[in-house]
Amino acid sequence: MQRLARACQVAAIIGSWLPWGVICGDSKSVELVCGAFGLTAEPAASLIPVSRGAMGRVWVPGSGRGALRRQITCHRDLHPDNVLVEASGELAVLDWDDAGPACPDRELAGLLMFWHGHDDGTADDAAVQRTLAAYRAGGGPGRLRDEQSFGMYIACRLNFLEAQASVALDPGAAPEHRAYASSEVSDTLARLPTPSLISHLTSLAAAALG
Fold first, then answer.
1. Which of 193, 187, 170 is nearest to 52 (CA)?
2. pLDDT tens string 80-137
3. In angstroms, how far is CA 207 from the centroid of its own chain?
4. Bridge partners of 24?
5. Total of domains in the chain
6. Minimal CA–CA distance to 121: which of 190, 186, 185, 197?
């Protein structure tokens, strides 16, 4: 229940961090979300691929308080399982299925959270600083300026949580699939970011990247 309350807390305050970079859902849902936060939305042509299901068309915020930041082509799924270290020491990035347009600050925010955020709501500061130094040296364009940079990460985590919970609660699903989904739900709830962690990472990034 503590973890579920944490998820509800994150979901309740995510509105102040719009835009997410993308909003997923049918036209009615998107209209309600955008109306609540003073946004307009236009449908994009593609779908967001989500594990075990599609959440609907991709919608991007248009005019209003949540005008989109600059987008570039990003990997959009840079968690540790998608990066291998070759014998030479070079990094090989795998699984480009989700690659597409995104704001670079949101890709960077997701990377920091996936790689260096801990279940207890803290981060490995030294590792974060090394990552940011390498990112700056490599010419990375993203700059974390506020909590909105983490919106895409949070939205994707909540979408993933909904998809896994649907499988875990589906009596028609195979037992092994339900068991796996249940473990994914527990892991995702444990790793939802806290506002304090988001603020801390934003401060570290601002100090390292300017």
1. 170
2. 999 999 999 888 999 999 898 888 999 999 999 999 999 888 999 999 999 999 999 9
3. 22
4. 58
5. 1
6. 197
